[in-house]
Write a structure and sequence with these properties.
With 426 residues, this protein is an all-alpha fold. The protein has one domain (52-257, 293-422). Helices cover 78% and strands 0% of the residues. The two termini are 39 Å apart.
C-alpha cells in the first residue's frame, strides 16, 4: 500500500492527470510485487469497472440537472426562497442557503450547484453590501448540501463500490442535508445581525404563492425519484430516465428549453460522464491490484491493532478521509480507499448505509477546503475574491460541517431512522 501511494503521489507531482496516475500506479504496483503477468487482465478489469447497469444513472441524473438548470428552474427556486425569507436581516444570504437546499434536489453535483447558485447569488449579495469573500464562502459551503440530498452522484458511486442500496443511501442523506442547511441558515442569520446586513422587501402571500407555483416543478423532482423507487413503480436506474423525461417536459411547458440549450446539456453530460467513467475504469486497476495483495484485509487488521475502540477507529478513518479530500476529488478518494475502509467498517460492525453517508460528507468537505478545493476555485472565479480571503471566511462553516460529521458517525438514527421508516428491511 505504501509503495502504491508513493508512486501515485510522484505521478501527481509530475503533473499526470489523476485518472492516468491511478492506472499507472496500479500497474507499477503489480510489477513491484512480482505480479506482472496479471497486467494482461487489465483491459478486462477496466471494462468490468464500468460495465455496471446502475452506472447509467450518472449521465441521466447529470442530464436531468443540466436540463432543469438551463430551463430556468434554478432562478425560480431562488425566487421562491426570496419570497419566503428574503425579508429577514441579511435576507439575501439566507436566500442563498435555502436556494442551495432546494437546488440540491435537481443537480447531484456540488460543483454544478456552486456554479449555478454562485453566478446568481454572489453578485446579488455584493450589491447588498455583503463582502465578496463571505458571499463566495457561503455559496461554496452550501454546495456541500448537494451530494447529501438525492439525487447524489457521489452516493451512486459509493453504492456501486460497496453494493449498498443506492435508494437507501439517497433517503439516508436527506436528514443530514437538511440539518446542514439549517445550521448554515443559523450561521448566516448570526452573521447578518452581527454585521447589520440589509433586509429585502417582504413578499405578500400572493407573491409567495406565485413563487411556489413557479418552483414546484423543480421541488417535485426528488419527490418523484424517492417516491417512485420506494413504491416500486420504477428502479433506481429507471428513475434517472424518468428524471430526464420530466425535465424535458417541464422545460417544454415553460418554453425556456430550446434545442440549443438541450444540445448544451448533452455536451456537458457527455464530457462529465466520460471523465468520470474513465476514472472508474482506471481505478478498477487499483482495486484489482490491492485485492490481489490482500491489502484491504491487512490494512484493516493493522488499523484495528492500533485500537479496538470503535470511536478511535472512526476518528482515524475520518482524519484520513479529510486529509485525502484536501488533495483529491471525492470520487478518486472513494475509489482508492473503499476496498480498505469497507473491510474496516464490517469489522467494527458499522451499518454501511450510515458509513456511506459519513464517507460522502467527508470527501465532499474536501471540495471546499484548500489547497485543492474545486468549489472554492469556482466561487473565487465568480466573486473575484482571493482564495485566501474565501478560505478564511469558510473556516467557521467548516467547523459546522465537522460537528455534523461527528454526529453522523456517532448517532446512527440521524442517517438510519428515515430509511428504516420508508424502506424497512423484511
Amino acid at each position: 500500500m505504501i509503495s502504491f501511494l508513493g508512486i501515485f503521489i510522484v505521478l501527481l507531482v509530475l503533473g499526470i492527470p489523476i485518472s492516468l496516475a491511478l492506472g499507472a500506479g496500479g500497474i507499477l504496483y503489480l510489477w513491484l510485487t512480482d505480479n506482472w503477468m496479471l497486467v494482461q487482465a487489465m483491459p478486462q478489469r477496466m471494462l468490468a469497472g464500468v460495465d455496471q447497469f446502475v452506472l447509467l444513472t450518472i449521465p441521466l441524473f447529470l442530464l436531468a440537472g443540466a436540463l432543469m438548470n438551463l430551463g430556468g428552474l434554478s432562478s425560480r427556486m431562488i425566487g421562491f426562497a426570496n419570497a419566503l425569507i428574503g425579508h429577514y436581516k441579511g435576507g439575501i444570504s439566507l436566500v442563498t442557503v435555502l436556494a442551495s437546499v432546494l437546488f440540491a434536489g435537481i443537480s447531484g453535483s456540488a460543483i454544478a450547484q456552486a456554479s449555478a447558485i454562485g453566478s446568481l447569488m454572489i453578485p446579488a449579495m455584493d450589491k447588498q453590501g455583503i463582502p465578496k469573500a463571505y458571499g463566495g464562502a457561503l455559496v461554496a459551503m452550501s454546495s456541500v448540501i448537494d451530494p447529501l440530498i438525492p439525487p447524489s452522484i457521489t452516493m451512486i458511486i459509493f453504492g456501486v463500490l460497496s453494493g449498498v442500496s443506492i435508494a437507501q443511501l439517497f433517503i439516508a442523506g436527506i436528514v443530514p442535508g437538511v440539518l446542514l442547511g439549517i445550521a448554515l441558515l443559523v450561521y448566516a442569520a448570526w452573521q447578518a445581525h452581527r454585521h447589520n446586513y440589509p433586509a429585502m422587501p417582504r413578499a405578500n402571500w400572493t407573491a409567495r404563492g406565485q413563487a411556489l407555483v413557479a418552483a414546484l416543478p423543480a421541488l417535485m423532482l426528488p419527490v418523484i425519484i424517492v417516491g417512485g423507487v420506494k413504491s416500486g413503480i420504477f428502479t433506481m436506474t429507471e428513475s434517472a430516465a424518468v428524471a430526464v423525461a420530466y425535465a424535458l417536459i417541464v422545460g417544454a411547458l415553460h418554453r425556456e428549453l430550446s434545442m440549443k440549450k438541450i444540445w448544451e446539456a448533452l455536451v456537458f453530460t457527455s464530457i462529465a460522464t466520460s471523465g468520470l467513467l474513465f476514472i472508474l475504469a482506471m481505478a478498477s486497476i487499483v482495486a484489482f491490484a490491492l485485492t490481489v495483495e490482500q491489502v484491504p484485509t491487512k490494512f484493516a487488521e493493522s488499523l484495528l491493532s492500533i485500537s479496538d475502540n470503535k470511536l478511535v477507529v472512526l476518528l482515524l478513518i475520518n482524519v484520513m478521509l479529510l486529509i485525502l479530500g484536501k488533495f483529491l476529488e471525492p470520487i478518486s478518494v472513494m475509489i482508492i480507499t473503499m476496498p480498505i475502509l469497507l473491510k474496516v467498517a464490517t469489522m467494527i460492525e458499522m451499518d454501511l448505509v450510515q458509513f456511506g453517508v459519513m464517507v460522502t460528507l467527508n470527501v465532499v468537505i474536501g471540495m471546499v477546503t484548500p489547497p485543492v478545493g474545486v468549489c472554492l476555485f469556482v466561487v473565487c472565479a465568480i466573486s473575484g475574491a482571493s482564495l485566501g480571503a474565501v478560505s478564511k471566511a469558510v473556516f467557521p462553516m467548516f467547523l459546522i460541517c465537522l460537528a455534523l460529521l461527528a454526529a453522523i458517525a456517532l448517532i446512527p438514527p440521524i442517517t438510519l431512522a428515515l430509511p428504516q421508516l420508508m424502506m424497512p428491511t423484511p
